[in-house]
Every structure is written in structure tokens, then in C-alpha cells.
Amino acid sequence: MTAVGANRRLDDGQSMSALPGHLRHQPVPLLPRRHRPAEIPDRAFDLGMPEQELDGSSKCRLLRVDRKWLNDATGRQAFETVSRQAVVSGYLGTRRCDMATTATQVVLDTPAAEFRLPATDGKTYALDDVAGEKGTVVVFVCNHCPYVKAVIDRMVADARVLMSEGVGFAAICSNDAASYPEDSFENMKRFAKAHDFPFPYLHDETQTVARAYGAVCTPDFFGYNADRKLKYRGRLDEGRTTPPRAGALRELVEAMRAIANTGVAPADQKASIGCSIKWRDA
Fold first, then answer.
1. Any bridge partners for residue 274, and if so which?
2. Which of 86, 147, 256, 264 could in theory staple to 58 by disulfide, Cβ–Cβ 3.0 to 4.6 A?
3. Buried (b) or exposed (e) across 152-170, using 16+ Cβ within 10 A?
4. What is the pLDDT of residues 84-128, one digit of tens each?
5. In the chain, what are the domains?
């Protein structure tokens, strides 16, 4: 699995070197005790900094997937990464939790989870309603994330292509709108209209669907075959907060075409990256 924050670049393109020395170098203090989930042992917070030096960004649960924390090596290294990103976020004045999160690996051939959710068009959709004859894409997005904003028009264009070829498409917003009002259902309606969504934009208010799918970030793509078995867990294309190179592969489109036509997905699937899903507090 990939630990969040392994990239030492910030969402707005600034590098760590742009920060003052005390934010660039080790040792980096860990999160204060009052911000840690109960399941994290005290030993992870031995180097805690004064609470007044951290803002709300320290509350980010960037490494959480289905209520568990992920790390590449040791828990301590992972928590240090979170703390460093939290301090950097506070220094730059960026919106709390808007930091890069990489989609984690899941088991291919996992069946698509059933759902029934309200959409911005006033209808309610189940998986049966959005599934395509040749395959289905379910993508978790939101309204405020800069990674989503950067790709949204390309994603809409690629969705139109896939839908015209028999692949169903649906987008789901699972973010906690109480903490992130920009991701409210009313703002979802505005976002869908502004970008002329040709697919249902669904509201997962309880976050149960995001957890069932194992969604991590926005955008996070799940590509299924005609039998609704997971075949693709990659990205839209190589673009992140900047456009892809001219002539770059349309990775989602080509992967879903291969799945629809041959049943075989590309072996090289590059994980999507984006803002972490904004989970509700337990």
C-alpha cells in the first residue's frame, strides 16, 4: 500500500524547499494527543508539539481507509508524514486536508457493491440503473478538490465516449458536507450543471458506499466488466493538477475499451491521486 504524503510536493505545486527550514527538516513533531484517533498508541506521540502550533489541518485522517491507518514501513514513519503535511498546510494557509492521497490497491475481480443513492437530477439510482452492457465506471469525486477540478472536463468528455460505447458511468460524492459545505448536495447540483454531467452524480451522505468500495481519494476510479467484477483501479490519465502532455494516453478510456472488448484489463495500472475523502468523525 502507498502511504499518503510520500510525495514531498504540495498541492499548489510548491516544493518543500520553498518552506522555512523548521518545516523542511527532521525531527518533525507528531500530532498532539487530542487530535489522534483512540486506536493509535501513545508511543506514536512521544514527540508531540504544543497544540497551539497546529491548526485544524492536524485533524486530517489522511492515512485512513475503512477506519484503519496505513503505512509503508512503520506506524511512526506514517504519523510523521501526516504531521509534516499538517504543519505545511497550516504554514501555507491551504484548506485543511487538501493534500495528495494515493488510491490503495484492492483485489481485482471484487464484485461491485450494490447501492441506492439520490442524484442531483432528482432521481434515485441503484447500481442496476447505472451499469452498462459492456462495463461500468464508478468514480468518487467532490466539488472542492483541486485534483477533481483539474480533471473534471476531461473526465466528462471521456465518460461521454465510454457511455456511447456501452460502458455505464456514475460519480459519487461521499465527503462530509458538515465540515466541507462546498461538497453539500446543493453544491453538487451546481457542480454537475456547470460541467454538464451526462451521468448521474450521486450523494453518499452516510459514506457507507465509499466504505463498501474502499474509496480513498477524489477522484478514485473503479472500472468493472460486464459481470460487474473489478478490472481497473487506475487513473483517468497522467494529468494531476496540470493537464497531461499532448497525445498522452487516455488511460481510463483505453482500459475500459480493452475490458469491454477482450475482458482483459491492462496490467500496468497507475493509481489515481487526489484529496483524501473527508470522513466524518467517529
1. 101
2. 86
3. bebbbebbeebeebebbbb
4. 333 223 323 334 444 566 555 567 899 999 999 999 999 999 999
5. 16-101 (no CATH), 103-276 (3.40.30.10)
